[in-house]
């Protein structure tokens, strides 16, 4: 008896593979109410499983250029779990011909009724070229220079990050069909700290994903996963992140045409032309849930890339390679140095979000759950076409480090990648974190100057600035600066502002607001940032200047200032009344707290 059952199972699997390899398509015009057929998907491992399908009818023109086949689906697994997240793309057959992909469902349905995207609509994806007006790209929130520097200077990275990501999630493509929604897609995440998944799942849930923990079989993939070819009904993963951490959206292959792979039957995020790695996947189990049943999946070997993300599905090419951003993260602390390497997709909003997730988990693994801490970060961002890397340093103390570091990195990446001038191709990112379990804050107690022997401060003189700082639970120490008054300094009132780099950011960006007009000027804004671990001294005085066409013009003569102010060809002008004529900075390894203002009277040279 067992041999007969085994023979029957092998015969069924052989039939399913043969059908998947040679299946013809059935046009929508031939689909009629009452027809019966079957669908194919994977409920466990890599085995193709059948489920029964009964056609209920066809909804014509339910959306712009979209039709929908209604069907009732049934199998022992579906009876327990309903329509399952991860079944998106399951091919549906009538008389051995493919009619479309299981792709749509209704919330709180009492019976497993689903919507099928007609196969002829899916196959049109191959005829579509690059798109510059996809719904998501057009709706992607762009962070302006003023918003960016305000968030960094006022240490509100987490708040602005939350606003931007919530805006992106709400801009995700909604169905044009009333009441129907895409079958949820499991977003398999492996190697992440549990609270990282909890923290970031809300963003993915709003996009129509179900965030679930998973494993990765890339390193030791089974023989069935290591083969590049797909069959209709196979599990497939759209990879967003791989390496020491992995994130992949799991769906089902609908149709194979040469090296073209059609899947999902509904949009991933409706981004038009994309470049995401396409991977084999292995289904571990189905989790029945009253909220949304889903498949647990391991992501396997990458065998190609997805090239199109459209309203009727996604299309990939076997053998293609997606261009991803390599990221190296190194953590140095009380224990041995830990190094992580990941690759993330290129997209102006998804890339910063995925980068933030990886950084959040790295920070979580490096620090204790409670207590004081200090984290100093050095980062290097290399852009294609630029000789010099963007180098940034920042530090955080206390509990805020866990939230601030991922948000900071996400804001920097988002600011660069979403700029309005031209594509900023990030070649690589390197991040180094130094973690300390102690609270390393130094409070600025006093600051004073030693004027020249004659008591007069004139242009060209050097003034010694003496500061006293006290670390948290430590002994006070002295830091001194030799500040040269510029030779062209205008005599009159001026002042020195002594404090942290973050304070200098607040003052300098408020006095000389950023207004970039090119990608080079976008990067120049980043180069103006100073870290809170720097002790800075700035010499400020009144000046008649202006920011025009993204360029700061200091000390303009009255006649030139009038000409610049009247010129509207370069957009809005920003008048500058004060600016920093001189700046000195010294890294301390502490978060500098406090500020001191010292008034000066610059005398004319005699």
Terminal residue distance:
113 Å
Number of domains: 3
Structural class: alpha+beta
CA-atom Rg in angstroms = 30 Å
How much beta, percentage-wise? 35-45%
**What characteristic shape results from the CA principal axes?**
elongated
**What helical percentage do the residues reach?**
10-25%
How would you concisely characterize the structure shown here?
The chain has 13 helices and 30 strands.
Q: How does this model look, in words?
A:
By secondary structure, the protein is of the alpha+beta class. It has three domains: 1-143 and 173-322, no CATH class; 326-436, no CATH class; 441-602, no CATH class. The radius of gyration is 30 Å and the shape is elongated.
List keywords for this structure.
606 residues, alpha+beta, 3 domains, six-stranded antiparallel beta barrel, 13 helices, 30 strands, elongated, disordered N terminus
